[in-house]
Structures are given as structure tokens and as C-alpha cells.
Amino acid sequence: MILYDVHLHSRFSTDSREEPENIAETAISKGLRGICFTDHMDLYFPEECSKKSGGDFTFDLDGYFEELDELKAKYRNRLDIRIGMEIGLRNETELKSKVVSGYEEMLNKYPFDFIIGSTHCLENIDPYWEEYWYGRTAEEGLDRYFDAIDQNVSDSCLFDTVGHLDYLVRYVSEEACLRSAEAKGLAGICHSGSLKRLYGREIYTPADFSDRIDSILKKIIDDGKALEINSAGLKYGLGFAHPKEEILKRYRELGGELITIGSDAHIAEHLAYDFDTVREMLIYLGYKYYFIYNERKSEGITLQ
């Protein structure tokens, strides 16, 4: 059993309304030994996307630590609670240095246990919204996304693990999906009204982006950073966690060993989502451990 979920969101995140204490109680009921809160901090989130999302994906760190420190004390004999953050990395020339400086200031001021580095925005837009995909095939949009991650991981001092490496396949627009399907002679599968998910399940192949993905994996291995397995892809019906099994296999082939595991839960009931499937896959691929972090230092836990 995987005993720690180290990617989850509470009401401190713009896209969650879940109470931290309910997350703690649910974790205990599911038999977890520990959790790490990793609420969203996306500096300079695109203004138009903020309006659509209902917030700018930042939060009050003083209040965050005050509340979670109280929760840690309350549950100290029942649950190992750690405090982290999921930061949104940016590669835009006009934003990159400002974003890095902002996060460095936070990391120097607050005693975080764990930092996830994720790419949620590029070209000053969140690709969750269809505007990003206008006039593009799925492959063109994903190639730009992997290129942005490749640039962002160069700032590896900021984070401990790369979050949900290929999660963008969930949000490919219907038009981009259809263009890709037609180009590959697979237009017949696009008929259910679920083209975004069909893209990830039927068309997405990591080999199409192997150069970019290899560059990303080599950089994080060289810098001693981890790769996250995020089970949200299973929750969304893609049939795989993020990243896809082929990427996890390649990571191991290149010498990668540091793996973190998170559900990316935004409601308590999704904690540890399908962790048994994740565990079985990791063992099949030859991994022996997964890792948790305390004061930004890694600790291996056996998968057996």
C-alpha cells in the first residue's frame, strides 16, 4: 500500500473548496500514514484566465502556515501532515525572472517540506482554455507545452518534483483533437462527444515527443529532482496516470529513481485515488521505492 499522498489541494487553492481538516480525516479513514498539502501558487496567472477561473491561483501564506501548523499539532499522533506548495513555472521571457524571484522569496521565508513544479501556463494563457488550441493540431499544442517544461526545469532549485508531466492531454480542444485524428486516419473514433479524453486515450503517444521528454528527464535526473506520478489521469478516465507508462519506463532507463506519488485531489474523497494501480505499475517497471519530503529532503519508502 502507498501510505502517503503528497499532491492535494484544499480551499487555499482557487479551484478547491475542501476544508483541510476534512482532508485529514479522510486520509485517516483511507489508511494513509501521511499527507502533504500542496496548494496552488501560480504567480502572474493570466488575467483573462483568472476571470474565467474565479481567482488568480495565489493565497495567503501566513494564513496557510498558521492553519496547517494547528492541524499538524491536532493530528500529530494520528497523521503525518506536511506543508508544501504547487508552484506554476513560466517560460515567457517577460515573466520568467519575476516568477523565479517571487518563488525564491517565498521559499526563503517559509519552512516548506515539499515543492511541486508544474507548468500550467504558457504563451500567457492556460491551455485548459480552448483559445490556446485555435488553429493547432493536438501535437503542435503539446510540442509547445513540452518545450515550455523543458525550459522551466532549468530552474530546478525551485522545486523537488516535476508535477503531472503530460496532464495537458486531458484538455486538448475538440477541434485540435479532430485535426490530429484526421491526419492519422482515426477520425472514426471521434464521435462520442468526449474528444478531449479520446485524444489522450487513443492518439497520444509519448514517442512523438521523445526528444523533448528525454531532455526534461535528463535534466531532472542530473539535478537530483524527482518525477511525479499523478493518478488524476486514471480519475479522468484516460486509462493511465500522468505521466504515461512509457515515460516512467524511459525515466528508469536513463537512471531516474526519485518518484513521488500524488492524487492531485481537489476534494477529499479523491485522496489516494487508484494508488493500488500506481503501485502495481511501478513494481512492474522495476521501481523499488517512492519518495516523500521533509524540509525539502527526500526519504525513500519501499513499494513492497
List keywords for this structure.
two-stranded antiparallel sheet; single chain; 304 residues; alpha/beta
Explain this structure to me?
The chain has a 7-stranded parallel β-sheet, covered by helices on one side. It has a two-stranded antiparallel ribbon with strand order 8-9. Helix 5 runs parallel beside helix 8 and helix 6 (174-183) packs parallel to helix 7 (195-203). It starts with a strand and ends with a strand. The chain is built from 11 helices and 9 strands. The protein has a single domain, classed as Alpha-Beta Barrel (TIM Barrel). It has helices spanning 20-29, 47-53, 61-74, 96-109, 138-152, 174-183, 195-203, 210-222, 232-235, 245-253, 275-284, and strands at residues 4-5, 34-41, 80-88, 114-118, 161-162, 226-230, 259-262, 289-294, 297-302.
Outline:
By secondary structure, the protein is α/β, with parallel strands linked by helices. Helices cover 38% and strands 15% of the residues. α1 links the parallel β1 and β2 (34-41).
Please write out the topology.
Blueprint: E1 4-5, H1 20-29, E2 34-41, H2 47-53, H3 61-74, E3 80-88, H4 96-109, E4 114-118, H5 138-152, E5 161-162, H6 174-183, H7 195-203, H8 210-222, E6 226-230, H9 232-235, H10 245-253, E7 259-262, H11 275-284, E8 289-294, E9 297-302
Helix pairs in contact: 5-8, 6-7
